[in-house]
UniProtKB/TrEMBL annotation:
This protein's record includes keyword Transmembrane helix: no
GO MF: DNA binding; DNA-binding transcription factor activity
Protein name (database record): LysR family transcriptional regulator
General function of this protein: NodD regulates the expression of the nodABCFE genes which encode other nodulation proteins. NodD is also a negative regulator of its own expression. Binds flavonoids as inducers.
Family to which this protein belongs: Belongs to the LysR transcriptional regulatory family.
Organism: Bradyrhizobium archetypum
PROSITE patterns: HTH_LYSR
Amino acid sequence: MDLKQIRYFVAVAEAGSFSDGARRAFVTQPTLSAAIASLEAELGFALLERHARGVRLTPRGEEVLETSRSILRHAERLKAASGGKPSGRPLRLGLLPTISPPFVTQCIGRLQALEPGRSWRTEDAPLAKLQERLANGRYDVILTALGLATRGHRQLELAADRQALAVSARAFPRGPVSPEILAGQPLIVRVHCEQLQSASRVLDAWKVRPRVVAQTDSDARALAMVAAGIGFCLMPDSFEHPDVRMLRPEGVDLTRRLGFEWVRGGGDGWLDRALDAA
């Protein structure tokens, strides 16, 4: 039994599902599931029960959860008492602006929790600039759309999203939407989208020829315009708005893997140590 297993169990118990727990713990779901299965085998009883909407704690799991939280609190106190101090230089984090704000804040919060005393500085930049600035040392770590890892780099995948067609929920309240309905409709273009050219395949697959009525580099503005019925927009399905529906066309899969990327040993080596222990 080790702290990783305990931390993963608490993450799943608090998140209510293995997938959300994995995102909280900064690990892949198979890694998290294997660690919890090993913990249950060592304890000799089940901690979690799966159901249609996620997981629930068993009666013994409820008891173990309180003990696990206590163990983690004491571990943090021991770490604080060890006298180790984080580097005085802020950790420089580059952010891809097309990632949804709730996911960005969740990732930053989890990263900060790994070492609360460390100072931070964030900066938005397009995909190509993120990679360039990571390579030349301007950033210690980037939260980005992951591709093939450059030699000497490390990656930690946290989630994925897909390019979708955002439409007004008032104009298209329920049921499937025929592609023909969208022909000739107003289109809002997100000019900062790193998948802009590839996203045109969504319209090609649906044989839709829209008319462009707006161009913006603000996802919040694009969502608001869609919600107001001004037009529809191609954007990641991780963005949410109560008055917007996300349509996912069959046969088109523009998926992004989202996560951290950093140079091995960067950030005075803290990133390697912290994320390996996450």
